[in-house]
Amino acid sequence: HSLCGRRRYCHALNINPCFKVSEMRTLVCHDARDVRIEEHPAPGPLARHDVLVRVAFGGICGSDLHYQQHGGFGTVRIKEPMALGHEVSGIVDQVGESVTEVRAGDRIAISPSRPCGQCKFCHAGQQNHCLNMRFYGSAMPFPHIQGAFSELLVISASQAHRVADHLSLSEAALAEPLSVGLHAINRAGGVFGKQVLVTGCGPIGSLLIGGLRRAGARRIVAVDLADMPLACARAMGADETINLRTQASALDAYKVDKGQFDAVFEASGSDAALRSALDVIAPRGTLVTVGLGGEVSLPMNQIVAKEIELRGSFRFHPEFATAVQFLNDGLIDGKPVITRVVPLDDAVSAFDLAGDKSQSLKVQIDFGAIDKLQVAA
Fold first, then answer.
1. Residue 124 CA from chain centroid, whole number
2. Rounded to the nearest 5 degrees, what angle is found at the Cα of 255, between the Cα atoms of 245 and 301?
3. What's the burial of 373, exposed, middle or buried (CB within 10 Å: 0-12/13-18/19+)?
4. According to DSSP H, which parts of the chain are helical?
5. Under a CB-based contact definition with an 8 Å cutoff, are residues 132 and 116 in contact?
6. How much is the pTM?
7. pLDDT digits (tens, 9 = 90+) for 92-126
């Protein structure tokens, strides 16, 4: 009891203070089209600085879909069974004896970014490029880094970010994709007072638009090939939305005078979107690529003649705390991005739903932490 740190929490809820769980359910990808709900042993005793969390909600990300649909992306392939997921929130269940940042019962968003803190990139403040990064649900290294789609999860206390009482744990799970957007805005080097184009209005693109609005962009134009994500983009703050499937020439007006956009954020991963952005970006504009796609052939003469700055944007690290603060303070409302929440029992079929962009944006899995807490109470 003194070790698990649950005395006050358990007394308030009138539940067994040292309740133990021997097994937990985990969502594991074995290969393309082979995702399973499996019973795994529950975590053992906590280390001094660790926190045991009952996972509440987990959002299915584009990279999770790549693993589920294709067994990987690019040259990255699953070589062993790997738990998926990195967009998660939860409720603190137990804390290690040295943990003071959170206590049992706290509602938290969980950062999946776990840099080593020792390599040259960590020392340079570029933790997202850590040579020993342990980012949840990644098949880039081998053995793979297991993901967070599990009923119970052991994290470092530094990964736990408390969420406001008014913020739902479903919304708190948006902190990760919002962090991706905020990092992309940082990579652009400032958007205050600028005219901006966002191509691709899925969850990351739409949350990025919310970040651009908060960062002071003067005008935001969003394009996509479907009406549903464009409606979300408008709800998140876009001034103009264009469906290029039905309005193929709508961007032509922005090509005049060598291009009208000071910055472009390419969030679709489409080579066609990237190439078309070069026609509408202004000379010396900044083009930030956020979406993951395949190999792209670029018109170098156009890039050189316009003096365009092409910048990649990969993951995040310090932006996670800012994302949680924005959500806590109501400065960004992510609710329009969440289109469906499904129970863990239906998690496998949830991937098919998430992959159908005609009917969903962000699909989340409910791991039942809130229900279990209410039953225990």
1. 24
2. 105
3. middle
4. 7-13, 62-70, 120-123, 169-172, 175-188, 203-215, 227-236, 271-280, 300-306, 319-328, 347-354, 369-376
5. yes
6. 0.91
7. 999 999 999 999 999 999 999 999 999 999 999 99
What residues are paired with 364 via a beta bridge? 59, 341
CA distance 206 to 181: 9
Buried b (16+ CB within 10 A) or exposed e, 212-247: bbebebebbbbbbbbebbbbbbbebbbbebbebeee
**The token pair that represents 259 in the structure block:** 């291009």
Report which residue type is found at 4: C
Q: DSSP letters of 120-138?
A: HHHHTT-GGG-TT---SSB
CA distances from 313 to 95, 159, 295 (A): 34, 21, 16
**Amino acid occupying residue 135:** F
C-alpha pair distances (Å), 356 with each of 174, 183, 228, 258, 353? 19, 27, 11, 36, 5
* Locus of tokens 């950062």: 111
Q: Are 90 and 108 in contact (CB under 8 A)?
A: yes
